[in-house]
Amino acid sequence: MCRWMGYRGEPIVPRVLLYEPERSLIAQSVRHGPDLLEPNGDGTGLGWYSRRRTPAIFHSDSPAWGDENFRELADEICSPMFLAHVRAGTGTPVQKTNCHPFRYQKWLFVHNGYIDGFDLLRRDLLMAVRPDLFANIKGSTDSEVMFHLALTFGLEEDPVGGLERMAGFVESAGAAAGVAEPLQMTVGLADGETLFAARYASGPVVNTLYMSESVDAIRMLYPEHERLRRIPAHARAVLSEPLSELPGVWREIPPSTALVITDTPHQRPFRPQQPG
Amino acid sequence: MCRWMGYRGEPIVPRVLLYEPERSLIAQSVRHGPDLLEPNGDGTGLGWYSRRRTPAIFHSDSPAWGDENFRELADEICSPMFLAHVRAGTGTPVQKTNCHPFRYQKWLFVHNGYIDGFDLLRRDLLMAVRPDLFANIKGSTDSEVMFHLALTFGLEEDPVGGLERMAGFVESAGAAAGVAEPLQMTVGLADGETLFAARYASGPVVNTLYMSESVDAIRMLYPEHERLRRIPAHARAVLSEPLSELPGVWREIPPSTALVITDTPHQRPFRPQQPG
Amino acid sequence: MCRWMGYRGEPIVPRVLLYEPERSLIAQSVRHGPDLLEPNGDGTGLGWYSRRRTPAIFHSDSPAWGDENFRELADEICSPMFLAHVRAGTGTPVQKTNCHPFRYQKWLFVHNGYIDGFDLLRRDLLMAVRPDLFANIKGSTDSEVMFHLALTFGLEEDPVGGLERMAGFVESAGAAAGVAEPLQMTVGLADGETLFAARYASGPVVNTLYMSESVDAIRMLYPEHERLRRIPAHARAVLSEPLSELPGVWREIPPSTALVITDTPHQRPFRPQQPG
Amino acid sequence: MCRWMGYRGEPIVPRVLLYEPERSLIAQSVRHGPDLLEPNGDGTGLGWYSRRRTPAIFHSDSPAWGDENFRELADEICSPMFLAHVRAGTGTPVQKTNCHPFRYQKWLFVHNGYIDGFDLLRRDLLMAVRPDLFANIKGSTDSEVMFHLALTFGLEEDPVGGLERMAGFVESAGAAAGVAEPLQMTVGLADGETLFAARYASGPVVNTLYMSESVDAIRMLYPEHERLRRIPAHARAVLSEPLSELPGVWREIPPSTALVITDTPHQRPFRPQQPG
């Protein structure tokens, strides 16, 4: 089913979120919660903004829990914004080009979920991708196609709107093909300055999405907590599943909601739109 | 923790045991039972006897559940004897040379378990391996060292005795280093004609081992069961965890027991010995 | 640039052709001739007909020269027809889904060459693939698209005709996009009974293709040659580059030629056609 | 045969040396000079000093020329000291634990060459490694054993002396086993402040080693050369094979020589010693 996380704030060493917490992303790669059923061992990825405007990418087709390169980078990098992802494939091959984050220029994209009936819809969805973007599609996942459809529908100028038009297009294509509830998603998106996220599904069951509360609020709740004291002032994390069970640290984001995470994060509705 | 299985009997296509049952080896790679906790996604291996006297080997450092080559071979091979293994590493790297089965001439060896304190003991255990066998050690696992110690202590002439002397040596080395309960194991061993297995641990908790009942007994219990009717007459499987929950199909092997599986399988005690 | 070979005849162990000759396929993976310039180390593949009607496949994203699984299979398999391939990528990623042979039901396909301007043409070529075949496209190579276009244009009923119509379509697409000489190819194709090959390029430089002479002719030339005596009576090999420099063993196939290899192989012209 | 390079100086982006020159390390992975014969496609590695005292490591078992992660890191990292290596194996498996650089605390080590007769000598050499260092040996190469022998013989306090005593020990062990010329090596070594190198072989043929001339000398020779103007003031590179054919840029280091590269590099003899 995948698990992902995004960070925005003062530069930190990713290990702090990826390895150290009780339910770290590495722990989530072994089994994801809350029912602790399946592993997310079909690939690992990290995208981060550091030296250059264009984010750097690391992809591995190995499970995250055993990937030494991932561990090294998590310990060496110091970055103000990154997206990390552990994959559970939904039918497409395990290979580096099917790992998230996907990248287009300054943008990074991760996804947890699927397009139901993707076998039927794949051809039509691919054909709707803008020709100049088509060459950037390297793998065979539904997630990568979703990203390129959102780019086609104006993500660069209007990120949440682009995602909404992508969702609307996927749902229309699904309806035309007799797929009742085609879209299941939480997505993370970054451009180096702002972190975006959205939680939406065509049906009643929606993959989970959480955001950390403000650092001030967390410190007020847990004044003695050593690790929480180290979190920088404006830091925010957004992710599929909480890193710990401490009450009050993680805010569940409702379905059909998008997040725009700047120094003052805000929520807004997420409603699939018809592309113009 | 690993999971493995061995087969002996009329030639079958391994898929029948590796993929088709409810709790197939592939299902066990996703989560192993009975508590369905951890994946066994640190490597995959298959060794089989077919065209040649020396068994053939396939190893992958990818999880079994996604390995297309493993699926292809499981469907293409037709073999009267094979050992398959899905790995959960206990601290040594994920790489093909750390996958089971290990091979020495006509012998194949798989292991589920560990040597506690292997970091401390590794050097001494390696040095006890007979020099001409040393070059056959390609990886860094405790399992591979156990195999080569058993070969050093006469496995080729006396398979169970060689394993018992290996166990005794490991326990002595552990005692000398202050490791209280060094050995946890079920092992599978094959030479192309006979399938061997053993279940033993230094302490009270012992990894599980099961053998299939005779085909006649299974058919009597389940006269209408379609899949069970297809099992060849003298077929036996031995494995870490039952492939299904059908009562009466799988016999649990007690701790401190070895199996010698010919057309008339028998059990015997397994007692660590001091090497002469 | 890739190198491939195909075999048809009495069952042999592939090692005989893949590993043993002076310029074996493994040697060709290290450096391909005749100018011994580049390695073909971007992937390895083997497809073979044995137990089932559908051929089995092995793919590795590692160079052939170091792949232990490939060596094992080459020694264990005994098959009357197989295609093997060592890849030099032309811009698409190194991953198992980009390895040859590609498979569709009973068919296997290998390619040495490229579609020039594939970045520009990829979208249009993909869209010309018959929708029911589209789901079988797993990777991102031009080779895989060529195979699926040939299937779209009737390869199953008329193999050489399907390839000719694919070539014609690619050249038309190229012309429309301003690509002067889009197609460079030798291809190998098998269905379990017949081995097909073709050598064609849009321009004057054409990748090489060779077929072995009849076994009788070879034995007449080299009555004392030990290895050549072991070749079965109707055996034929077709490949990119000769396995040895023995005069008279390898016949160079002219450009714009197709081969149909049955017990009585014949050559015929290969001319790109316009698909109906 | 391997190829490696080391850099010391003002922080640079490794791509400048690894990818951009005419005979970059990537070009050397495709074919190494001067006879342009074999690829170095059995693994890739990079170790660099940046954020922490302990160097970070990246290893891949894929050829460098196609490794996207290596390309990304080469473009993202900015480091004052790094060692990079492209491997041609000499009989041990292709796996990440057999990639260079090897690391021990603040030290990085790369090697081009081999220990002749390593199969015979491996056991004795391993046993001479100090027990507390033994656990740091993760792979099966002669190179990794050489590093740990040098550490055993005092490399941390006296780097060149430790290497000399390792060489003496290897030669003694070889002599005792009847191996005439056991050691072939250039080695690179770093501790975060100083870069060391040595060129030595037991016999008359010695793998090559070069060091860049001072930046002042290079700029005087080539005042108009754009890329050479960008090289920082105290920068030095040491490597197996020159990155370009520009006369006067690369100084060949004689056999039996060690380099100590600080702001004022100096050469000294390298003579195998008997360990105390």
From TrEMBL, chains A, B, C, D:
Q: Which domain of life is it from?
A: Bacteria
Q: Key word Transferase present in the record? A: yes
**EC number(s) per entry:** 2.4.2.-
Top EC category: transferase
Q: Which keywords belong to this entry?
A: Glutamine amidotransferase, Glycosyltransferase, Transferase
Q: Which GO terms describe its molecular function?
A: glycosyltransferase activity
Show the Gene3D superfamilies listed in the entry.
Answer: Glutamine Phosphoribosylpyrophosphate, subunit 1, domain 1
Output the PROSITE patterns linked to this UniProt entry: GATASE_TYPE_2
Sorted alphabetically, which PANTHER family does this protein's record hold? GLUTAMINE AMIDOTRANSFERASE DUG3-RELATED
> What name has this protein been given in UniProt?
Glutamine amidotransferases class-II
| Organism listed in the record | Frankia alni (strain DSM 45986 / CECT 9034 / ACN14a)
